[in-house]
Write a structure and sequence with these properties.
Order of helices and strands: HEHEEHEHEEEEEEEEEEHH
Strand content: 25-35%
CATH topology of the largest domain: Jelly Rolls
Distance between the termini: 58 Å
Number of helices: 6
Number of strands: 14
CATH class of the largest domain: Mainly Beta
Largest sheet: 8 strands, antiparallel
Number of domains: 2
Strand order of the largest sheet: 1-12-7-14-5-4-2-3
CATH superfamily of the largest domain: Jelly Rolls
Helix content: 10-25%
Shape: globular
Radius of gyration: 21 Å
CATH architecture of the largest domain: Sandwich
Amino acid sequence: IGEEVKPFTPEKTKEIVMSLQQPAVFCNMVGDWPALHWNAKYLSAVLGGKTIQFRLGLKTVDLDPQFETRCNYVKATLEEFLAWCCGQPSCLSGPFSCYEYSKYWAYADYKYIARIFEDKPEIFQDIRWSDFGFPGRSGKESTLWIGSEGANTPCHLDSYGCNLVLQVQGRKRWHLFPPGDTSCLYPTRIPYEESSIFSKVNVANPDLKRFPEFRNTTAHVVTLSPGQVLLVPRHWWHYVESIDPITVSINSWIELDADHEARVEEAITRLLVCAIKSADDPSDGDLWLNPTEVEATSHEINLQYLNKAVSAYFKCHKAGVSEQARPGS
């Protein structure tokens, strides 16, 4: 039959991605991507004995979100993870031995593909965001997520960019809320992570006594299946859960001009959080920082972040203004 014709050209797809204010699912766009074969078994063979960090959470649903600060962590190979998921007796010892599969889920989330496969750069080309109008964007600018059933990310919004997510194995359910619902989602910066604003509400089991305004939100629920790509527009809140025994997805954040302003806000937030935290009782400091943030940065470094962000913002702002300026204005 020859090459499968994609519903949109790269140019048209980019136009949709950059202008759409609603989430959308793209179908039949990635049929020829080698990355569609990246199931957990294949990745396990590629990675060999390399260990990656898994976050473990309880399958029982509490009224509070399971923030990453409340999870357990193990380093394990994908082979060990798969054996644990399949209930193999070999798991009586090893990294997952303390965690009963019926009670826990495991998630290798937010893994930079460039870092995991730094010794196999040829694998980056399996991911072709050029079909979405972003030439040169590959696995190098993408992130990998591998989870067991029940694995989830607390509801949050990303400060920067919009998000393209390819589902490779299993299905994931996305609960998406528009930026207009922000106040009803009770945003918080604790745990602090640069670029993530969390919701205090456990979307899967909301405490309506504590968070009555949550009733006024409108969730857009999407079940993403293998071969589909989800667009999460800028500042849309999302809670994501794995609903099959094993899920694999790949995402890439697309930078936007509006990010320059967001970087200034984020730099100020970092400055404040670290200043307050250093003045606080250091014993409970671990609950402040999301595990993705290695440590509280010094005042000096935070000022550098702020300085860079402000400079980039004004540079971008000036460029925009000079484009608009007409002779004689």
